[in-house]
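hey m, so remember when u said the C-alpha coordinates were messed up on ur end? i reran from scratch. heres the input so u can diff it against urs
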Amino acid sequence: MTETVQQDLISRLAQHKKLGSAPPDELAWLAKHGTLHTYAVGDVVTSHTEHAVKLLIVFSGSMVIRLDRGAGSIKLFEWKGGDVGGVMPYSRVTSPPADVVAEEPTETLVVHRDNLPEMTRECPVVTDILVHVMVDRARQFNSADLRDEKMISLGKLAAGLSHELNNPASAVVRSAKMLQAGIESSEAAARRLGAAHLTDEQLASIEAMRTACAMSTATMSPVERADREDAITDWLADHDVDDEFAAPLAGVGMTVEKLDELAGSLSGDALNAAIEWLAAGCSVRALSSEIETAASRIYDLVAAVKSFSFMDRAPAAEPVDIRKGIADTLTMLASKARAKSVEVSLDIAADLPRAQAVGAEINQVWMNLIDNAIDAVDQGGRVTVTARNELGHVVVRVIDNGPGIPPEIKDRIFDPFFTTKGVGTGTGLGLDIVRRLLQRLDGTISVQSNPGRTEFQVRLPTAP
Protein backbone atom coordinates (compact mmCIF):
# COMPACT_ATOMS: atom_id res chain seq x y z
CA MET A 1 0.00 0.00 0.00
CA THR A 2 1.48 3.34 -1.05
CA GLU A 3 1.84 6.15 1.44
CA THR A 4 -0.73 8.23 -0.46
CA VAL A 5 -3.32 5.45 -0.31
CA GLN A 6 -2.63 4.92 3.39
CA GLN A 7 -2.99 8.62 4.14
CA ASP A 8 -6.27 8.62 2.24
CA LEU A 9 -7.48 5.68 4.32
CA ILE A 10 -6.47 7.39 7.54
CA SER A 11 -8.36 10.49 6.43
CA ARG A 12 -11.46 8.47 5.68
CA LEU A 13 -11.20 6.63 9.00
CA ALA A 14 -10.98 9.98 10.79
CA GLN A 15 -14.38 10.83 9.28
CA HIS A 16 -15.91 7.46 10.15
CA LYS A 17 -18.93 7.81 12.46
CA LYS A 18 -17.90 5.04 14.86
CA LEU A 19 -14.08 5.14 14.75
CA GLY A 20 -13.34 8.76 13.89
CA SER A 21 -12.68 9.71 17.51
CA ALA A 22 -9.76 7.26 17.85
CA PRO A 23 -6.17 8.63 18.00
CA PRO A 24 -4.38 9.08 14.64
CA ASP A 25 -1.79 6.41 15.41
CA GLU A 26 -4.54 3.85 15.98
CA LEU A 27 -6.27 4.85 12.76
CA ALA A 28 -2.91 4.45 11.02
CA TRP A 29 -2.63 0.94 12.44
CA LEU A 30 -6.05 0.08 10.99
CA ALA A 31 -5.08 1.53 7.61
CA LYS A 32 -1.83 -0.45 7.60
CA HIS A 33 -3.38 -3.80 8.57
CA GLY A 34 -6.63 -3.45 6.65
CA THR A 35 -7.52 -4.19 3.05
CA LEU A 36 -9.91 -2.02 1.05
CA HIS A 37 -12.65 -4.19 -0.47
CA THR A 38 -15.68 -3.36 -2.60
CA TYR A 39 -18.78 -5.58 -2.81
CA ALA A 40 -21.27 -5.47 -5.64
CA VAL A 41 -25.01 -5.76 -5.12
CA GLY A 42 -25.85 -9.39 -4.23
CA ASP A 43 -22.32 -10.34 -3.16
CA VAL A 44 -22.13 -12.51 -0.04
CA VAL A 45 -19.91 -10.64 2.39
CA THR A 46 -19.92 -13.42 5.00
CA SER A 47 -21.56 -16.82 4.53
CA HIS A 48 -23.48 -18.42 7.38
CA THR A 49 -21.85 -21.75 6.49
CA GLU A 50 -18.32 -20.46 7.13
CA HIS A 51 -16.46 -19.12 10.13
CA ALA A 52 -16.48 -15.34 10.23
CA VAL A 53 -12.90 -14.03 9.92
CA LYS A 54 -13.36 -10.36 8.96
CA LEU A 55 -13.74 -7.16 10.91
CA LEU A 56 -15.66 -4.91 8.49
CA ILE A 57 -15.35 -1.13 8.72
CA VAL A 58 -18.07 0.14 6.38
CA PHE A 59 -17.37 3.35 4.45
CA SER A 60 -20.43 3.32 2.18
CA GLY A 61 -23.26 1.13 0.97
CA SER A 62 -25.39 -1.40 2.85
CA MET A 63 -24.90 -4.98 4.12
CA VAL A 64 -27.92 -6.90 5.38
CA ILE A 65 -28.77 -10.15 7.18
CA ARG A 66 -32.22 -11.44 6.21
CA LEU A 67 -33.80 -14.43 7.87
CA ASP A 68 -37.02 -16.40 7.51
CA ARG A 69 -38.39 -17.08 10.99
CA GLY A 70 -41.58 -18.67 9.78
CA ALA A 71 -43.48 -15.61 8.58
CA GLY A 72 -41.47 -14.68 5.51
CA SER A 73 -38.02 -13.11 5.15
CA ILE A 74 -37.31 -10.20 7.48
CA LYS A 75 -34.35 -7.87 7.85
CA LEU A 76 -32.57 -9.05 10.95
CA PHE A 77 -29.72 -6.51 10.88
CA GLU A 78 -28.20 -3.90 8.58
CA TRP A 79 -24.85 -2.10 8.42
CA LYS A 80 -24.50 1.16 6.49
CA GLY A 81 -21.70 3.64 5.93
CA GLY A 82 -20.22 4.62 9.29
CA ASP A 83 -21.01 1.26 10.91
CA VAL A 84 -18.71 -1.57 11.98
CA GLY A 85 -19.61 -5.23 11.53
CA GLY A 86 -18.24 -8.73 11.37
CA VAL A 87 -15.83 -10.16 13.94
CA MET A 88 -15.15 -8.04 17.01
CA PRO A 89 -12.46 -8.25 19.71
CA TYR A 90 -13.36 -10.81 22.40
CA SER A 91 -16.43 -11.91 20.42
CA ARG A 92 -17.38 -15.59 20.60
CA VAL A 93 -19.51 -15.46 17.46
CA THR A 94 -18.28 -18.00 14.91
CA SER A 95 -20.69 -17.38 12.03
CA PRO A 96 -23.74 -15.20 11.30
CA PRO A 97 -27.26 -16.69 11.56
CA ALA A 98 -27.70 -16.13 7.79
CA ASP A 99 -25.64 -14.81 4.88
CA VAL A 100 -24.50 -11.19 5.11
CA VAL A 101 -25.31 -9.80 1.66
CA ALA A 102 -24.48 -6.45 0.05
CA GLU A 103 -27.75 -4.80 -1.02
CA GLU A 104 -25.97 -1.72 -2.35
CA PRO A 105 -22.46 -1.24 -3.80
CA THR A 106 -20.52 -1.41 -0.53
CA GLU A 107 -16.98 -0.31 0.29
CA THR A 108 -15.30 -1.64 3.43
CA LEU A 109 -11.94 -1.82 5.13
CA VAL A 110 -11.37 -5.48 6.07
CA VAL A 111 -9.16 -6.44 9.01
CA HIS A 112 -8.57 -10.18 9.35
CA ARG A 113 -9.36 -11.95 12.63
CA ASP A 114 -5.67 -12.95 13.00
CA ASN A 115 -4.77 -9.27 13.53
CA LEU A 116 -7.24 -8.71 16.37
CA PRO A 117 -4.95 -9.82 19.24
CA GLU A 118 -2.35 -7.28 18.13
CA MET A 119 -5.04 -4.65 17.67
CA THR A 120 -6.21 -5.04 21.27
CA ARG A 121 -2.62 -4.29 22.41
CA GLU A 122 -1.82 -1.47 20.01
CA CYS A 123 -5.21 0.22 19.69
CA PRO A 124 -6.92 0.44 23.08
CA VAL A 125 -9.34 3.22 22.07
CA VAL A 126 -10.41 1.41 18.89
CA THR A 127 -10.81 -1.79 20.90
CA ASP A 128 -12.97 0.01 23.46
CA ILE A 129 -15.17 1.44 20.70
CA LEU A 130 -15.56 -1.95 19.05
CA VAL A 131 -16.44 -3.66 22.33
CA HIS A 132 -19.18 -1.08 22.93
CA VAL A 133 -20.45 -1.63 19.38
CA MET A 134 -20.50 -5.38 20.03
CA VAL A 135 -22.47 -4.95 23.26
CA ASP A 136 -24.98 -2.64 21.56
CA ARG A 137 -25.33 -5.09 18.68
CA ALA A 138 -25.91 -8.00 21.07
CA ARG A 139 -28.55 -5.95 22.87
CA GLN A 140 -30.31 -5.21 19.60
CA PHE A 141 -30.20 -8.87 18.58
CA ASN A 142 -31.56 -9.96 21.96
CA SER A 143 -34.34 -7.39 21.86
CA ALA A 144 -35.32 -8.36 18.32
CA ASP A 145 -35.15 -12.08 19.15
CA LEU A 146 -37.35 -11.68 22.22
CA ARG A 147 -39.85 -9.55 20.31
CA ASP A 148 -40.02 -12.03 17.44
CA GLU A 149 -40.35 -15.01 19.75
CA LYS A 150 -43.15 -13.24 21.65
CA MET A 151 -44.95 -12.72 18.36
CA ILE A 152 -44.48 -16.37 17.47
CA SER A 153 -45.76 -17.42 20.91
CA LEU A 154 -48.70 -15.07 20.40
CA GLY A 155 -49.40 -16.81 17.10
CA LYS A 156 -49.36 -20.21 18.79
CA LEU A 157 -51.62 -18.90 21.53
CA ALA A 158 -54.03 -17.39 18.98
CA ALA A 159 -54.11 -20.62 16.95
CA GLY A 160 -54.80 -22.73 20.04
CA LEU A 161 -57.38 -20.29 21.33
CA SER A 162 -59.23 -20.16 17.99
CA HIS A 163 -59.55 -23.96 18.04
CA GLU A 164 -60.66 -24.00 21.66
CA LEU A 165 -63.21 -21.21 21.12
CA ASN A 166 -64.64 -22.68 17.94
CA ASN A 167 -66.67 -25.47 19.55
CA PRO A 168 -68.34 -23.47 22.36
CA ALA A 169 -68.92 -20.50 20.06
CA SER A 170 -70.56 -22.76 17.47
CA ALA A 171 -72.65 -24.32 20.23
CA VAL A 172 -73.86 -20.89 21.38
CA VAL A 173 -74.86 -19.90 17.83
CA ARG A 174 -76.55 -23.23 17.11
CA SER A 175 -78.44 -23.37 20.41
CA ALA A 176 -79.48 -19.69 20.20
CA LYS A 177 -81.04 -20.29 16.77
CA MET A 178 -82.84 -23.39 18.04
CA LEU A 179 -83.92 -21.53 21.19
CA GLN A 180 -85.91 -19.03 19.15
CA ALA A 181 -87.86 -21.85 17.50
CA GLY A 182 -88.23 -23.56 20.88
CA ILE A 183 -89.75 -20.45 22.46
CA GLU A 184 -92.26 -20.18 19.60
CA SER A 185 -93.20 -23.84 20.04
CA SER A 186 -93.56 -23.34 23.79
CA GLU A 187 -95.85 -20.35 23.29
CA ALA A 188 -98.01 -22.27 20.79
CA ALA A 189 -98.21 -25.23 23.19
CA ALA A 190 -99.22 -22.91 26.03
CA ARG A 191 -102.06 -21.50 23.93
CA ARG A 192 -103.34 -24.98 23.13
CA LEU A 193 -103.07 -25.97 26.78
CA GLY A 194 -105.05 -22.91 27.79
CA ALA A 195 -107.75 -23.75 25.24
CA ALA A 196 -108.23 -27.16 26.87
CA HIS A 197 -109.99 -25.51 29.88
CA LEU A 198 -108.31 -27.75 32.46
CA THR A 199 -109.26 -27.90 36.12
CA ASP A 200 -107.01 -26.71 38.89
CA GLU A 201 -106.22 -30.30 39.81
CA GLN A 202 -105.22 -31.14 36.23
CA LEU A 203 -103.03 -28.03 36.00
CA ALA A 204 -101.38 -29.00 39.30
CA SER A 205 -100.51 -32.46 37.97
CA ILE A 206 -98.99 -30.94 34.84
CA GLU A 207 -96.94 -28.50 36.94
CA ALA A 208 -95.71 -31.43 39.04
CA MET A 209 -94.53 -33.15 35.88
CA ARG A 210 -92.66 -30.00 34.85
CA THR A 211 -90.21 -30.45 37.72
CA ALA A 212 -88.92 -33.56 35.91
CA CYS A 213 -87.36 -31.28 33.31
CA ALA A 214 -84.96 -29.94 35.95
CA MET A 215 -83.53 -33.38 36.79
CA SER A 216 -80.04 -34.10 35.54
CA THR A 217 -79.32 -36.99 33.21
CA ALA A 218 -75.56 -36.45 33.09
CA THR A 219 -74.95 -39.96 34.45
CA MET A 220 -77.18 -41.57 31.80
CA SER A 221 -75.22 -43.50 29.20
CA PRO A 222 -76.08 -43.16 25.48
CA VAL A 223 -77.53 -46.68 25.53
CA GLU A 224 -79.71 -45.89 28.56
CA ARG A 225 -80.94 -42.69 26.95
CA ALA A 226 -81.76 -44.50 23.70
CA ASP A 227 -83.70 -47.18 25.64
CA ARG A 228 -85.65 -44.51 27.52
CA GLU A 229 -86.47 -42.67 24.28
CA ASP A 230 -87.73 -45.92 22.71
CA ALA A 231 -89.92 -46.61 25.74
CA ILE A 232 -91.41 -43.09 25.69
CA THR A 233 -91.98 -43.35 21.93
CA ASP A 234 -93.97 -46.55 22.44
CA TRP A 235 -95.97 -44.93 25.26
CA LEU A 236 -96.83 -41.90 23.13
CA ALA A 237 -97.95 -44.13 20.26
CA ASP A 238 -100.19 -46.12 22.63
CA HIS A 239 -101.85 -42.88 23.80
CA ASP A 240 -102.24 -41.35 20.32
CA VAL A 241 -99.71 -38.57 21.10
CA ASP A 242 -97.20 -37.30 18.53
CA ASP A 243 -93.93 -39.23 19.00
CA GLU A 244 -91.75 -36.15 18.09
CA PHE A 245 -91.92 -35.27 21.79
CA ALA A 246 -90.03 -38.43 22.78
CA ALA A 247 -86.51 -37.02 22.31
CA PRO A 248 -86.87 -33.88 24.48
CA LEU A 249 -88.70 -35.82 27.18
CA ALA A 250 -86.06 -38.57 27.24
CA GLY A 251 -83.32 -35.95 27.53
CA VAL A 252 -84.53 -34.98 31.00
CA GLY A 253 -85.88 -36.88 33.95
CA MET A 254 -89.17 -37.95 32.36
CA THR A 255 -90.07 -41.66 32.64
CA VAL A 256 -92.93 -43.86 31.50
CA GLU A 257 -94.10 -44.08 35.13
CA LYS A 258 -94.44 -40.29 35.36
CA LEU A 259 -96.31 -40.22 32.06
CA ASP A 260 -98.70 -42.86 33.41
CA GLU A 261 -99.42 -40.57 36.38
CA LEU A 262 -100.18 -37.72 33.98
CA ALA A 263 -102.46 -39.91 31.85
CA GLY A 264 -104.40 -40.77 35.02
CA SER A 265 -105.79 -37.25 35.14
CA LEU A 266 -105.77 -36.25 31.45
CA SER A 267 -106.83 -37.80 28.18
CA GLY A 268 -107.41 -36.99 24.52
CA ASP A 269 -106.54 -33.47 23.30
CA ALA A 270 -105.80 -32.30 26.85
CA LEU A 271 -103.13 -35.01 27.29
CA ASN A 272 -101.65 -34.18 23.90
CA ALA A 273 -101.53 -30.45 24.71
CA ALA A 274 -99.98 -31.10 28.15
CA ILE A 275 -97.23 -33.33 26.76
CA GLU A 276 -96.52 -30.86 23.94
CA TRP A 277 -96.16 -28.05 26.52
CA LEU A 278 -93.92 -30.16 28.74
CA ALA A 279 -91.70 -31.22 25.80
CA ALA A 280 -91.39 -27.62 24.58
CA GLY A 281 -90.41 -26.46 28.06
CA CYS A 282 -87.83 -29.24 28.36
CA SER A 283 -86.31 -28.26 24.99
CA VAL A 284 -86.06 -24.59 25.95
CA ARG A 285 -84.42 -25.41 29.28
CA ALA A 286 -81.96 -27.81 27.63
CA LEU A 287 -80.99 -25.22 25.00
CA SER A 288 -80.59 -22.56 27.67
CA SER A 289 -78.34 -24.89 29.66
CA GLU A 290 -76.22 -25.60 26.56
CA ILE A 291 -75.78 -21.88 25.93
CA GLU A 292 -74.77 -21.32 29.56
CA THR A 293 -72.24 -24.19 29.44
CA ALA A 294 -70.70 -23.00 26.17
CA ALA A 295 -70.58 -19.36 27.29
CA SER A 296 -68.93 -20.41 30.55
CA ARG A 297 -66.29 -22.30 28.53
CA ILE A 298 -65.60 -19.17 26.47
CA TYR A 299 -65.35 -17.11 29.66
CA ASP A 300 -62.91 -19.62 31.17
CA LEU A 301 -60.76 -19.57 28.01
CA VAL A 302 -60.58 -15.77 27.95
CA ALA A 303 -59.71 -15.79 31.66
CA ALA A 304 -56.95 -18.34 30.95
CA VAL A 305 -55.48 -16.10 28.22
CA LYS A 306 -55.56 -13.10 30.52
CA SER A 307 -53.91 -15.09 33.30
CA PHE A 308 -51.36 -16.63 30.90
CA SER A 309 -50.27 -13.27 29.46
CA PHE A 310 -50.42 -11.27 32.73
CA MET A 311 -51.84 -8.50 30.54
CA ASP A 312 -52.94 -6.47 33.55
CA ARG A 313 -49.63 -6.73 35.41
CA ALA A 314 -46.37 -4.82 35.11
CA PRO A 315 -43.43 -6.93 33.85
CA ALA A 316 -41.66 -7.21 37.21
CA ALA A 317 -40.46 -10.21 39.20
CA GLU A 318 -42.98 -11.24 41.85
CA PRO A 319 -44.27 -14.41 43.51
CA VAL A 320 -45.89 -16.42 40.69
CA ASP A 321 -48.22 -19.43 40.98
CA ILE A 322 -46.45 -21.97 38.77
CA ARG A 323 -49.39 -24.39 38.98
CA LYS A 324 -51.77 -21.83 37.45
CA GLY A 325 -49.30 -20.80 34.74
CA ILE A 326 -48.73 -24.37 33.56
CA ALA A 327 -52.46 -25.13 33.65
CA ASP A 328 -53.18 -22.04 31.53
CA THR A 329 -50.46 -23.10 29.09
CA LEU A 330 -51.98 -26.55 28.73
CA THR A 331 -55.34 -24.91 28.03
CA MET A 332 -53.74 -22.95 25.19
CA LEU A 333 -52.14 -26.07 23.74
CA ALA A 334 -55.04 -28.47 24.30
CA SER A 335 -56.22 -28.40 20.69
CA LYS A 336 -52.72 -29.12 19.38
CA ALA A 337 -52.37 -32.08 21.74
CA ARG A 338 -55.78 -33.44 20.70
CA ALA A 339 -54.88 -33.12 17.01
CA LYS A 340 -51.94 -35.53 17.59
CA SER A 341 -53.79 -37.64 20.18
CA VAL A 342 -51.03 -36.75 22.63
CA GLU A 343 -51.70 -37.59 26.28
CA VAL A 344 -50.57 -34.64 28.42
CA SER A 345 -50.48 -35.29 32.18
CA LEU A 346 -49.81 -32.84 34.99
CA ASP A 347 -48.27 -33.83 38.33
CA ILE A 348 -47.72 -30.87 40.66
CA ALA A 349 -46.92 -31.23 44.36
CA ALA A 350 -49.63 -29.98 46.68
CA ASP A 351 -47.09 -28.00 48.72
CA LEU A 352 -45.44 -26.31 45.71
CA PRO A 353 -44.38 -22.79 46.73
CA ARG A 354 -44.60 -19.76 44.48
CA ALA A 355 -41.56 -18.95 42.36
CA GLN A 356 -39.93 -15.55 42.04
CA ALA A 357 -40.45 -14.72 38.37
CA VAL A 358 -42.01 -12.43 35.79
CA GLY A 359 -45.37 -14.06 35.14
CA ALA A 360 -45.68 -13.45 31.39
CA GLU A 361 -42.06 -14.47 30.77
CA ILE A 362 -42.13 -17.69 32.77
CA ASN A 363 -45.36 -18.69 31.03
CA GLN A 364 -43.54 -18.17 27.73
CA VAL A 365 -40.99 -20.70 28.99
CA TRP A 366 -43.74 -23.26 29.64
CA MET A 367 -45.30 -22.52 26.25
CA ASN A 368 -42.02 -23.18 24.42
CA LEU A 369 -41.07 -26.33 26.32
CA ILE A 370 -44.49 -28.00 26.24
CA ASP A 371 -45.09 -27.01 22.62
CA ASN A 372 -41.71 -28.49 21.66
CA ALA A 373 -42.51 -31.68 23.58
CA ILE A 374 -45.82 -32.11 21.72
CA ASP A 375 -43.96 -31.55 18.43
CA ALA A 376 -41.32 -34.11 19.40
CA VAL A 377 -43.60 -37.08 20.12
CA ASP A 378 -45.27 -39.28 17.54
CA GLN A 379 -49.02 -39.59 17.05
CA GLY A 380 -50.49 -40.87 20.30
CA GLY A 381 -47.38 -39.93 22.28
CA ARG A 382 -47.14 -38.87 25.90
CA VAL A 383 -45.97 -35.65 27.59
CA THR A 384 -45.66 -35.32 31.36
CA VAL A 385 -45.19 -32.07 33.29
CA THR A 386 -44.14 -32.29 36.93
CA ALA A 387 -43.32 -29.63 39.52
CA ARG A 388 -41.66 -30.10 42.90
CA ASN A 389 -40.06 -28.09 45.68
CA GLU A 390 -36.42 -29.18 45.86
CA LEU A 391 -33.85 -27.52 48.13
CA GLY A 392 -35.39 -24.07 48.00
CA HIS A 393 -36.11 -24.18 44.27
CA VAL A 394 -39.20 -24.82 42.21
CA VAL A 395 -38.19 -27.59 39.80
CA VAL A 396 -40.36 -28.15 36.73
CA ARG A 397 -39.74 -31.10 34.42
CA VAL A 398 -41.21 -31.44 30.93
CA ILE A 399 -40.81 -35.07 29.82
CA ASP A 400 -41.77 -36.62 26.50
CA ASN A 401 -41.49 -40.13 25.08
CA GLY A 402 -40.33 -38.99 21.64
CA PRO A 403 -37.28 -40.26 19.75
CA GLY A 404 -34.87 -38.10 21.75
CA ILE A 405 -32.26 -35.54 20.75
CA PRO A 406 -29.40 -36.90 18.61
CA PRO A 407 -26.11 -36.69 20.56
CA GLU A 408 -24.39 -34.76 17.75
CA ILE A 409 -26.77 -31.79 18.10
CA LYS A 410 -27.55 -31.91 21.83
CA ASP A 411 -24.89 -29.27 22.63
CA ARG A 412 -26.33 -26.91 20.01
CA ILE A 413 -30.04 -26.88 20.86
CA PHE A 414 -29.72 -23.72 22.98
CA ASP A 415 -27.77 -21.85 20.26
CA PRO A 416 -29.58 -18.94 18.62
CA PHE A 417 -31.27 -19.83 15.31
CA PHE A 418 -30.51 -23.54 15.62
CA THR A 419 -33.54 -25.67 14.78
CA THR A 420 -34.27 -29.16 13.54
CA LYS A 421 -37.70 -28.15 12.24
CA GLY A 422 -38.44 -27.39 8.62
CA VAL A 423 -38.22 -23.96 7.00
CA GLY A 424 -41.14 -21.84 8.14
CA THR A 425 -41.89 -24.20 11.04
CA GLY A 426 -39.17 -23.47 13.59
CA THR A 427 -37.24 -20.28 14.22
CA GLY A 428 -34.43 -21.72 16.30
CA LEU A 429 -35.16 -19.02 18.88
CA GLY A 430 -37.39 -20.88 21.34
CA LEU A 431 -34.79 -22.60 23.53
CA ASP A 432 -32.35 -19.69 23.25
CA ILE A 433 -35.11 -17.35 24.48
CA VAL A 434 -35.99 -19.81 27.26
CA ARG A 435 -32.37 -19.91 28.41
CA ARG A 436 -32.07 -16.10 28.38
CA LEU A 437 -35.37 -15.54 30.18
CA LEU A 438 -34.37 -17.98 32.91
CA GLN A 439 -30.95 -16.34 33.29
CA ARG A 440 -32.71 -13.04 33.95
CA LEU A 441 -34.73 -14.77 36.68
CA ASP A 442 -31.68 -16.48 38.25
CA GLY A 443 -33.06 -19.76 36.97
CA THR A 444 -31.44 -22.57 35.00
CA ILE A 445 -32.42 -25.10 32.37
CA SER A 446 -30.87 -28.47 31.58
CA VAL A 447 -31.71 -31.40 29.36
CA GLN A 448 -31.28 -35.17 29.47
CA SER A 449 -32.25 -37.16 26.41
CA ASN A 450 -32.32 -40.79 25.34
CA PRO A 451 -34.51 -42.53 22.77
CA GLY A 452 -37.97 -42.74 24.32
CA ARG A 453 -37.35 -40.16 27.05
CA THR A 454 -36.33 -36.51 26.88
CA GLU A 455 -36.47 -34.35 29.99
CA PHE A 456 -36.07 -30.58 30.19
CA GLN A 457 -35.58 -29.45 33.77
CA VAL A 458 -36.18 -25.84 34.87
CA ARG A 459 -35.06 -24.63 38.29
CA LEU A 460 -36.40 -21.34 39.68
CA PRO A 461 -35.77 -19.68 43.02
CA THR A 462 -38.74 -19.79 45.36
CA ALA A 463 -40.37 -16.49 46.29
CA PRO A 464 -39.26 -14.95 49.59
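this time it looks ok to me. Residues 422-429 have pLDDT under 50 and may be disordered. if urs says something different then somethings off w ur setup not the seq
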